[in-house]
Amino acid sequence: MSRSNVEAKIKESSLAIMIISLIGAALTACAGFYQLLSDTERISDDYVKKMMLKTALSNIICSVILIIAAAIFYRIAKNARPFTNGNITAIRIIALLFLINAVLPSIIVGMYLGFAKISIIGSGSIFNAALCFFFGEILRYGNLLQTESDETL
Amino acid sequence: MNNEKMISKLKVISRISVVGVIAYIALMAYRYLPDVVNGFMDGWNSYDGGEAAADEMPVWKILTAVPCGIAFAATLIIIIVAGLQLLFSLSKGNSPFNEKVSKSIKNLGVSCIVFEIVRTFLMFVTLDTVHIGMLWLAGLVLCAFSLVFRYGTILQKESDETL
């Protein structure tokens, strides 16, 4: 497949994923804010209330992650250049947000309920964060190749 | 940082990732051991009238659940194998941008999407609930990233030819 073909395919797929990410971000944000602002007076169990708070915070962080992902795919769809410094920084921010998602909601809920009652760290989120940092490094290498290619041309 | 330094750094990170992924899978598998679950909270997974409920389950549901369960296990194994294959090829090759890695990422993405569909269908058949996770989106992102890796392969070829 030629370079122009790959670039065209990258543009198309990035645009599609950008739209899906935005829809996902909107839905997740709605779910998060609904859980955060909903009337919890009817729920008598304090544990359930705080777990709802944890899920709400998690959903809000996830929606921010999806918005940043949409921004990355928008930039790729715009100029078909995935290996840019901006995208590397954005992927690192996503990795950082995954780390925050792994720790922050649990710590906030843990302050109310006591740390013994909850699992402090979300292992899935830490795994995602490591994966994003790794992808960031690969993109950095791609950026080097892109610079070389531009200089040659 | 020059190319060689960057590649060696990527290799080190890939090797650490291989160990991390294996540890993560082992941890996840450990959680499913019956002894661990019973010791943690006794009877949380018991279902009142489980045998009676199984008797009442329609035949079509049982007939659909069996192939779905097999497909679920198969796609899960494919995801794990494809993920490890990807990390191994990243830690062994000279550059992360080659056709093999690009194909592995695409396979991983497609298997994630298939896994999510099978899981949703299996949950609908067995538990009468519909829960759609975010793995299908991760699969789509991986499919898009396979194209990015293909673009990287072209850049890598250009760079090798220039040298």
TrEMBL record, chain A:
Keywords: Membrane, Transmembrane, Transmembrane helix
Superkingdom in the source lineage: Bacteria
Membrane-spanning ranges: 15-36, 56-77, 89-112, 118-139
The protein's name in its UniProt record: DUF2975 domain-containing protein
UniProt lineage: Bacteria, Bacillati, Bacillota, Clostridia, Eubacteriales
Automatic annotation (TrEMBL), chain B:
Keywords: Membrane, Transmembrane, Transmembrane helix
Transmembrane segments: 12-33, 62-88, 108-127, 133-152
Claim: Transmembrane helix is one of the keywords in the record: yes
Domain of life: Bacteria
Name the record gives this protein: DUF2975 domain-containing protein
